[in-house]
Amino acid sequence: MVKYATALRLGTAETEAILRRFTRNNLQHPTYQALAELGRAIKTIFLCQYLESEELRREIHEGLNVIENWNSANSFIHYGKGGEFASNRLDDQEISMLALHLLQISLAYVNTLMVQKVLEDEAWMKRLTKEDYRGLTPLFYAHVEPYGSLRLDMDKRLALA
């Protein structure tokens, strides 16, 4: 176990390569069984900490809310073909994923600029509490119209920055 942990820590071995070595036909290997038991013990320790600490539960819940919000934004902006990668070709899947990343980045960037513009107003700065700042996120999309016609005028800029 120490050998594999050291290899992982030093970066001389990949996790997938180590797991592949055991999962092929060595599920009865003593090292694999010891690693599985260690994993169960770590999981049990985490669950005990989770049940004991309301702060940890709240932090995890907030993180999950951010992820769920991001996933709902993804399903909203990646609506073509039901939001799924319909092709079996890796090139088509890669293009779809890159297009989704471009949409994600663009949405977060424009929303960040819009939030910054609002926060420039001194009145808003005085009204916001500590909890309000924690709730600020660029992951909103109620203002996006995915089905309408888009007019691109390269001579005009958004009045954002």
Strand content: under 5%
Radius of gyration: 23 Å
Number of strands: 0
Tell me the structural class: mainly alpha
Largest sheet: none
Inertia-based shape: extended
Give helix % range.
55-70%
Pattern of helices and strands = HHHHHHH
How many helices? 7
**Uncertain ranges:** none
Give the N-to-C terminal Cα separation. Answer: 54 Å
pLDDT average, as an integer? 84
InterPro entries: Tn3_Tnp_DDE_dom
Protein name: Tn3 transposase DDE domain-containing protein
Organism: Ktedonobacter robiniae
Pfam family, one: DDE_Tnp_Tn3
Question: Secondary-structure blueprint of this entry?
Answer:
Blueprint: H1 2-10, H2 15-23, H3 30-52, H4 54-77, H5 90-119, H6 122-127, H7 130-135
Highlighted features:
Tn3 transposase DDE domain-containing protein, single chain, 7 helices, extended, about 0% strand, about 160 residues, Tn3_Tnp_DDE_dom, mainly alpha, about 65% helix
How would you describe the overall organization of this protein?
With 161 residues, the protein is an all-alpha fold. Helix content is 66%, strand content 0%. The chain has 7 helices and no strands. The chain has helices spanning 2-10, 15-23, 30-52, 54-77, 90-119, 122-127, 130-135. The mean pLDDT is 84.
What's a quick, concise take on this entry?
With 161 residues, the protein is mostly helical.
